[in-house]
């Protein structure tokens, strides 16, 4: 009886140690992902340096499911640039092209009008009620590059949340059952 | 170390890294291209030049836009977005850029074109400063790659002037 108790205690302590070290490994992975994300925000000067395209309003150049790389410099905003902007009252940012710019003398403040390449009309209908122009503070960043199709994983996980849970569950199972 | 899970994970990570690297190299190959585009724009007629009910000047004009942008295309080019903007200065604004027309060039076959059109978007001022105004017509092009870095450039054509009087 004593021997069985001894064996059980030693097995339990090994399992606790293993569980703790796996928890720490998971924590390190999450922390490094966060560090990479925050560094990207610092380097690109944009609050959301990577966005996934959700609509087809910029097709055929930028399709739903593409990932856009953003950068926000102090350079003035000029016609033709593809920008990502927020409108009061909407939580999803919009990615469209600047078609009109009016820049004030001396202050450099701008009034900007945008339009999706694939849309028949400009974005006035998307702005807040009574708003005719975007200002610099609405704009999150300029699109400088893009990766096609890489964003579909995010879209699928948003549209069918069950897949998110299945993935996280599978990863968790993998971490716990790994014999290392 | 040799379980299915580890192997699948290693394979997935490696393939994503390789794909990303290939995208980066494809994008870098675009730098080897040295484009030599040409363009010419004429304002054939000013159709309408009025002050709108909001008090802003508005112009409608017929343009002839011809350009050869074939040298912009590389194997990594998905499309070229081209637009013509009227650019001018007013006492209130140091710069006004108003897009008059834009188009998408999906392939190199369509990159040499000549079109006759009225302005697609309203040429409106903030205010009524356009009578007799000298302005540039700038053809901008944005090359959108299949993957990677987008780049843009423009051709400025000066010497245009709006009529002194409304019509």
TrEMBL record, chain A:
Its EC number is 3.4.21.89. Residues 40-143 form the Peptidase S24/S26A/S26B/S26C domain. Belongs to the peptidase S26B family. It is an enzyme of class 3 (hydrolase). It comes from Actinidia chinensis var. chinensis (Chinese soft-hair kiwi). Its main location: endoplasmic reticulum. InterPro entries: LexA/Signal_pep-like_sf (IPR036286), Pept_S26A_signal_pept_1_CS (IPR019758), Peptidase_S24_S26A/B/C (IPR015927), Peptidase_S26 (IPR019533), Peptidase_S26B (IPR001733). This is Signal peptidase complex catalytic subunit SEC11. GO terms for molecular function: serine-type endopeptidase activity; signal peptidase activity. Gene3D superfamilies: Umud Fragment, subunit A.
TrEMBL record, chain B:
The keyword Nucleus does not apply. Keywords: Endoplasmic reticulum, Membrane, Signal, Signal-anchor, Transmembrane, Transmembrane helix. The keyword DNA damage does not apply. Residues 1-26 form the signal peptide. Pfam families: SPC22 (PF04573). It is found in: Endoplasmic reticulum membrane. It comes from the Eukaryota. GO terms for cellular component: signal peptidase complex. It is a single-pass type II membrane protein. One of its GO terms (biological process) is protein targeting to ER. PANTHER family: MICROSOMAL SIGNAL PEPTIDASE 23 KD SUBUNIT SPC22/23, SIGNAL PEPTIDASE COMPLEX SUBUNIT 3. Essential component of the signal peptidase complex (SPC) which catalyzes the cleavage of N-terminal signal sequences from nascent proteins as they are translocated into the lumen of the endoplasmic reticulum. Essential for the SPC catalytic activity, possibly by stabilizing and positioning the active center of the complex close to the lumenal surface. Belongs to the SPCS3 family. This is Signal peptidase complex subunit 3. The lineage of its organism: Eukaryota, Viridiplantae, Streptophyta, Embryophyta, Tracheophyta.
């Amino acid at each position: 009886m004593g021997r069985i108790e001894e064996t059980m205690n030693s097995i339990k302590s090994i399992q606790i140690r293993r569980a703790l070290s796996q928890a720490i490994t998971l924590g390190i992975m999450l922390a490094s992902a966060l560090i990479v994300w925050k560094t990207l925000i610092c380097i690109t000067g944009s609050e959301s340096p990577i966005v996934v395209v959700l609509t087809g309003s910029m097709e055929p150049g930028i399709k739903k499911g593409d990932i856009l790389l953003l950068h926000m410099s102090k350079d003035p905003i000029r016609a033709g640039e593809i920008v990502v902007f927020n409108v009061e009252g909407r939580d999803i940012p919009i990615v469209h092209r600047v078609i009109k710019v009016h820049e004030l003398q001396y202050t450099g403040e701008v009034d900007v009008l945008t339009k999706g390449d694939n849309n028949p009309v400009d974005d006035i209908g998307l702005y807040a009620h009574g708003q005719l122009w975007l200002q610099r503070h609405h704009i999150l960043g300029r699109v400088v590059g893009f990766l096609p199709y890489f964003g579909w994983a995010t879209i699928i996980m948003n549209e069918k949340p069950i897949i998110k849970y299945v993935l996280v569950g599978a990863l968790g199972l993998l971490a716990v059952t790994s014999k290392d | 170390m040799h379980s299915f899970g580890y192997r699948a994970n290693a394979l997935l990570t490696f393939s994503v890294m390789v794909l990303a690297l290939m995208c980066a190299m494809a994008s870098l190959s675009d730098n080897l291209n040295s484009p030599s585009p040409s363009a010419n724009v004429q304002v054939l007629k000013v159709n309408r030049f009025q002050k709108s009910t909001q008090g802003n000047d508005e112009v409608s004009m017929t343009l002839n836009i011809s350009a050869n942008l074939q040298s912009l295309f590389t194997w990594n080019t998905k499309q070229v977005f081209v637009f013509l903007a009227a650019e001018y200065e007013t006492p209130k604004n140091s710069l006004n850029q108003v897009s008059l027309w834009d188009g998408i060039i999906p392939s190199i076959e369509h990159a040499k074109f000549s079109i006759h059109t009225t302005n697609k978007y309203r040429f409106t001022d903030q205010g009524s400063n356009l009578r007799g105004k000298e302005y540039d017509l700038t053809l901008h092009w944005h090359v959108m790659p299949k993957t990677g870095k987008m780049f843009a450039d423009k051709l400025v054509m000066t010497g245009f002037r709006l009529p002194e009087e409304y019509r």
